[in-house]
Amino acid sequence: MEENNAQKPLLFMLTYLLMKRRRDLNSMDVERRNEIQRRQRHRQYFLQRQKRTLMMPLTQSTQSCSCPIPTRVWSNTESTDWWERVVMREFQPADWLEKFRMSKETFFFLCGKLKPRLTRQDTRLRPALPLEKRVAVALWRLATNVEYRTISELFGVGRSTVCKCVREVCHAIVVLLKPMYLCLPSEQELEDAAKLFQSRWGFPHCVGVLGTLHVPIIAPSSNTDSYWNSQGWLSVVMQAAVNGLGHFWDVCAGFPGGTEHAVILQNSTLWAQACEGGLTPNPPRSFMGRPLGYLMLGDAGYPLRSWLLKCYPESPRAMIPDSQQTFNRRLMRAHSVLDVALLRLRARWQCLHKRNDCGLDVVPTMVLACCILHNLCEVHGDTFVEEWVDVVKHGECPQPTETLSLSSEEDEGEEVRILYCEYFQQQEQEHSQSN
């Protein structure tokens, strides 16, 4: 009995310690849960603040302007609701042009054309990303060249999803729309192009102007030296041919920035077509008393051929004859259609103007897709905002100037050039006599 009485205080003490320990553990669990919730609230606040910071500049104009644009009400909208409610319901025509570089009607026309290749089915794990949203993600990237992370926050999708959308949409544009909007012209189309060049630019028998565009890139993992151009920055070269309306009808891209014009030309389908007589009508048209096929105009970096003419080289030390000066003026006037087309292309799709951080396996496809989209917008008559050009004119990567071709000049090409000198000289004399 005495032993039991002696053990009671010990049992009471043990019971008390156990209960105290349990209260301490419960208190620690509560504090841990509160700390976790506090951190989650802090992280959520930080992410929302970061989203607002990222979306505010994107809602404004992508180019700099003298007068500040007030922040739109939808700049602070959550990403999950931004596409479905704001873009699809509240975007005005000017917003579609500014953010996607095309009208709403052209956007949905494009989505309809790409549907056979881009449609995805829902799975048990997650619903498929809507076709329109995938196209919008890719167009936003092409139009602004902003980072994948920024587009990811804006559209509420993962960065890997943004990268995948850009790849798949650009590839689908090339596969499905290239035969419609970027293909070699037929014989009738060549005849129409020649008439347009003669009536608008005063250069008969011409069906196109040939030139190049350097697209800035980041340093590739290998063979970096070949990508340095004459201006001292890394680039990929695109060769393009345009008609009298400034529409592209032949494009090849992906050559390192240090590649000569003649090398690019000789590795293009245009060279093969011209050498096989693809630019010669049947029967050949008469010009200055002799049969002559269609021809193109190029800059000083291209070799002189019977179907490819370029200016006579000028030097301050040695003046060239008046007939050659007249020929140069006429050719440069007609050549300006290419300069304007490339300027509008870079202004509309700034991934070609700003330094592109995509892999070299993606850049050529992006370039082709941008040229096709340019033709699509021009054919549909979408408005081109002249303020877009200011960003290109004040860019940090000026285009390299052409250098004289080291390839051998063709004698027949010089004969054709002399014919045009005589033709333009006659026109000048007739014009002076009429006045």
Automatic annotation (TrEMBL):
Q: Where are the transmembrane segments?
A: none
**Cofactor (UniProt):** a divalent metal cation
- Residue ranges of the DDE Tnp4 domain? 212-375
CC per GO annotation:
nucleus
What compartments host this protein? Answer: Nucleus
| Superkingdom of origin organism | Eukaryota
Where does the record place a coiled coil? none
Name of protein: DDE Tnp4 domain-containing protein
Q: Which organism is it from?
A: Coilia grayii (Gray's grenadier anchovy)
